[in-house]
Each structure stands twice: as structure tokens, then as C-alpha cells.
Amino acid sequence: MKNTALVLMVLSAFASAASAGPTADRKKREAVDKSLAQGASEVKDCGKTYKISFDWEAFDKIDWSKAENTKEHQIGSETTNVRWVGHDINKLCLDKDYKGPLQKIDNVIYRTTIEMGEKGEGRLRAKVEGKTLTFENRVGGSTRDGGDFATAAKKVL
Amino acid sequence: MRFVTIVLGFGLWLVLGAGHALADDVPMKEIQALAAHGNWRELLATATKVKPTARDADWRKLVVAAGVHVIDESGNATSGMSSTQDLLGVVPSVEATYGFLRDDAGYLDAKARAVQRVAAACGGEELVDCGAIVVVLSAGVQRFPKGMARRLAELVERDVSAVEALHFWRAAVAEQREACQEPGVARAVIGVLASDAAGARLEEALNTARTCLVQLESALLEALIDTDDGSAFARNACPMLKPRPGASVMKKKKCH
Whole-structure pTM over 0.90, yes or no? Predict the structure, then answer.
């Protein structure tokens, strides 16, 4: 009986370690990508398609010791955040004044950052470089919501 | 011609306060006696009853002295915060009656000292409307002791409104440009620009916005996005934002 309990405890500890390991991280990242893709599927009124991606390279370069959230916590938040990227792109396309400028964009990138903006932009800021529209979301604060990406984009389009 | 004469005569009669003085004239001696006995509040309540023609050089000095004493007496160690709160009911009416007080350096200094006392005392357990007292006491005061303006701005925004805090944020920014980054500055500026404010208050908002434009631009653009065409905010903010790069679609839509 005593041995059985010991084995169960060891197995339990192993399972916990595994859930916090690479597999769990991969699953969370897949959830983020899936959420982003789900939002991207809402882009129907722009007359074109966009390559919408999450900048995982930038995410992995973040010094999380300087961030307001832990890496694990942030991945969870990103699943909610990125859901609205495609939704808001389509929202902008429904306004003919923004549909025009969006024809010049081919790529949309969502990037997590811990860098403060220089110009008081708030946590979510957008920039246009060539044919790429990049959203930079600073770690911390509440999660993004529908309309936040449209507002950020309107400041630069 | 006759009508004009009558109107001018009536105006002069009003300016001189004859209508009021007819009711119960008070001699200068009585005002001087009130001052001698330290009855400052009564002096302020009575000084207008001295006929303008009977007022000598001391009249104005005595009113100023009374104003200074009333403010200095409030909120001192013995009277506590409740008497400071009492100023809410006294200062606005006194300044409305004796407009010259707001131009008197000694009186404004007394108010600045009282504001300091309020700021130091607020946060205690006594329930007082600190922000409202600060607004009343600060009218006409342009400079505050170092570091005080930011504290006052926070108090006023908390207790009164973001818009009322503008005066203090402007002073904080004038003292230290880094204050432009405080979120309260954007709230105050946007609040005033979106209102029907005109004159000095609008100028104060525009000047603060120009001084802090780099830090406020994003918030101003956000407010422009949310505002209606032809709104007060668009009318006030567009001349500042239009020459700046970015948001060209939005500016085309909202800034006519």
C-alpha cells in the first residue's frame, strides 16, 4: 500500500512537470495561432487576403524578467488578444475610407513587446512599413478587445 | 439723448452701489473697529456697506487683510480640516464681492499657503472634500511650491473632475516637462477640448497640448477617432493635429 502511494506520487509529480514543459508550451502556442487564424477567417470585405502572423521570434527574445507578466501568463492572454486582429481588419474594410489604404497592405504581424512607446501610444500601437502593418502589444494591462486594433490602425493609416 | 442720459445715470448709480448703500450705510470707523477686534469675517460681510464715496485708502487694505486672516485662520493647527472645508462657502462669495482680491499678491500667497495645508492634511481620516477646496483656494494662484502641483492635480481629478485638474497639470508640466507623461494630463486636456470651454480655460488646454504634443498625440488621435464630425473636440484639436504625420484618413474625415 505504501509503495503504491509512493508510485502514484512520483507519477503525479512527473505529470505536473510534463504539463509545464515543452508540450504544454507548444499547445499554448498552437492555441494562439488557432485563435489568430480564426480571427483572420473573418476578413471577408477587404477584397483581398492578408498573411496574418504572430511574431514568435520576437516573443522568444523577450527578457521576461523585465516583463509585467510571466511568459506562461502572457501566452494565455495572447490567445484572447489575437482573436481580434482579423476581426478589426475586416471592420476597417467596411469603411471605404480605410479599405483603400488597406489594399496596399499584404502582411499583418502581431508582435508582443515589453518596450514602452516613445509617444504615449498606450499598450497597443500600430505601424506601417512598406506592405506590412504591424501591431505591437505591450505586455501587461488587460487583454485586448474588439475595436482596439482598429483604433490603433486608424492612428497610422 | 434723454434716454441715454437716464441709462448712464442709472449705471453710475449701480456702480457706486448707491442702491445698496441707501439701505444701511456703514461708516469707515465701524470697519476699522472690526479690524481692530479681529472680527475679520464680519468685516468682509460689512465692508460693502460703506458708501464708495466714504471709503478711504484703508478700506481696500482692510478687506485684503480680512481675506488673508480668514484664510490663514482656517486649517491651522487648532481649527482643523473642518474649518478649511468652511472656506468652500466663504472664498467664492468673498472673491465675487471683492474682485480685486484675486490681484493681490498677499491674498494669493495666503491662498497658496492654505492649499499647501489642505494637500498636507488630505488623506487623513477626516472626511473633507479636499479636491473641491483645492479648486476654490487655487483660483488665481499661478505657481505652487515645488512638487505640489502634481499632488493637487491628482487630488482634484479624484474629488472633482479631470477637467478641473487641468490648471494643476499645467502648473506641473511648467515645473517639470516629464509630467506630460501622466495619464491625467491627457484626460484633462481632452476633457476641456471636448467641452464648450472658451477663453482662458481653452487656452490653457491648448497650451498644455502644444507643450506635451509628443506625449499626448496618441490619446488626442484616439479622442478624434471617437468624436463626431464638427464636434468641439475636432474643432479644437484639428488645427494642432492636422500638420502632424499619420492618421491621414481620420484627419480627412474629421478635420474639415
Answer: no
